[in-house]
């Protein structure tokens, strides 16, 4: 009987440890799957299984990236893009959050202004680039405005949706307790909308890099987007891949930074 009990206990322990073991395997695979992909790419390029003119080996791309790092050329383009994204992002995010809170809390304002934003939102932001270039010129102002427009709508709709999803019972309790509109906003509406606001911030960050890359293709003399376009024009494929990887990493690190802020300031949200 004791041997059977001991055997059952070992089986139970094994079953209990199985999820943690699988999690370690998945984590290990997630770390090395990109490296495996790069290795396959390298071997395919070296053995001419893929055309090196269009897909140079990762080692060649890394060598090109190192040359650009040593010459500081890469940092100049990164700095220009980050400055444009940062200013345009702030120009769009702040009014987007404020108007989202206003329309989420006020049904009359939402009925009045909601259809206007709904009509403007589907317009492709890149499609209005010629108009923005015509109004603001080919300088950085046009890049700021284009990014701000794209960021604004994402922040506006995520913020408004977060406020509108606040359980009505919370609003009723605050009203019955004699809370002022500002207290209701500060203690109930704004905290309830924060998870949606941070979701909008992450979506807007990714969208910002997409927009700035396209904007820098046509109307810039610096920036990662300009660098990618100039590399394409000269058929410098390795340099073009460097630019693609750099802007991808920039977007990834920005989103990771926003997620870190979310864990710090919105601990009650599901992560």
TrEMBL record:
The keyword Transport applies. It is found in: Cell membrane. Residues 78-262 form the ABC transmembrane type-1 domain. PROSITE patterns: ABC_TM1. The chain crosses the membrane at residues 87-106, 112-137, 144-164, 208-229, 241-261. It is a multi-pass membrane protein. The keyword Transmembrane helix applies. It comes from the Bacteria. Belongs to the binding-protein-dependent transport system permease family. This is ABC transporter permease. It comes from Psychromarinibacter halotolerans. The lineage of its organism: Bacteria, Pseudomonadati, Pseudomonadota, Alphaproteobacteria, Rhodobacterales.
